[in-house]
């Protein structure tokens, strides 16, 4: 197995374990791409202010995706599993 295949399979395994990581990455790149595209029509806004707004928006999306991921994981581990342990006759 090549190094590329190992990295790809590792990424897919991590994405299955934590599904909001790829969502956060995609949102980050979408926001950065949009703000870079919008850079040409920024008007009188200084470049540094535009870049700070882009960084804050991208980081906010990533933090939001991580928060939703943690809440989802806590729900899955503490609420969904105990119900399945109480009712072993039901399947997922």
Describe the protein's architecture and organization.
- One of its GO terms (biological process) is mitochondrial respirasome assembly.
- Its main location: mitochondrion.
- InterPro entries: Hypoxia_induced_domain, RCF1.
- It is found in: Mitochondrion membrane.
- The chain has 92 residues and is mainly alpha-helical.
- It has 2 domains: 43 residues; 41 residues.
- Helices cover 79% and strands 0% of the residues.
- 4% of the residues are buried.
- The model has no long low-confidence stretch (mean pLDDT 82).
Descriptive terms for the model:
92 residues; mainly alpha; 2 domains; 3 helices; 0% strand
Write the layout of secondary structure elements.
Elements: H1 3-17, H2 20-37, H3 47-86
Helix pairs in contact: 2-3
Domain HIG1: 1-84
InterPro entries: Hypoxia_induced_domain, RCF1
Pfam family, one: HIG_1_N
Structure summary, number of beta strands: 0
Q: Name the helicity range.
A: over 70%
How many domains comprise the coordinates? 2
Q: Could you report the average pLDDT, rounded to the nearest whole number? A: 82
What is the 3D shape?
elongated
Q: Radius of gyration, Cα only, in angstroms? A: 20 Å
C-alpha termini separation: 33 Å
Order of helices and strands: HHH
Number of helices: 3
Question: What is the SS-derived class?
Answer: mainly alpha
Strand content: under 5%
Question: Which segments are poorly predicted (pLDDT under 50) over 5 or more consecutive residues?
Answer: none
Largest sheet: none
């Amino acid at each position: 197995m090549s190094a590329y295949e190992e990295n790809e399979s590792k990424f897919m395994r991590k994405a299955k374990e934590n599904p909001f990581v790829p969502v956060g990455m995609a949102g980050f790149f979408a926001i950065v791409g949009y703000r870079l595209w919008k850079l040409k029509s920024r008007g009188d806004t200084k470049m540094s202010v535009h870049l700070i707004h882009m960084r804050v928006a991208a980081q906010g999306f990533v933090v939001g995706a991580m928060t939703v991921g943690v809440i989802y994981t806590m729900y899955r581990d503490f609420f969904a599993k105990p119900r399945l342990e109480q009712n072993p006759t039901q399947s997922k």
